[in-house]
Specification:
9 helices, about 150 residues, disordered N terminus, mainly alpha
Length: about 150
Amino acid sequence: MHDGRLDLSNPTRDGGTQDESPDDVVYVEDMVRRRGYALMYHRVLAKQDLPVLKAADNLVSAAYLETRTLDRMTKELLFVLSLTVLRADPAHIAVHIRVALEVGATPTEVLEAIEIALPEAGVVAFQHGFEVWRDVVDADGVVLESDESAP
């Protein structure tokens, strides 16, 4: 018996389920090739509503991926900063830190981009991005004498 609720686990327009199609997989693999990553929401949206993913991807391509005035490294640094200020999911920030490093940014340049969050967004936003950066680049801190004498 149908209780009127939609099964959103794998919907189609007619309320049935949608199996993974080669188009879904090919599209996401192409995104990885162009962007250097695909987030989980890209993968799920590809299977659940490929036309919306394509529309969103076209916007991202125009604003972010296509070479215009800013180079890819600069755009990645800006992306890291904006995601830090928004306190985005750490995995999302980490993806863009890794891509920034892959396209030529140094760990210090990425840190400087995150530090720009301090005056405008504050310490909490900065710390959010900083912790992701620290994990991605495996940065360590100074060791204090008191650390070494602790049991």
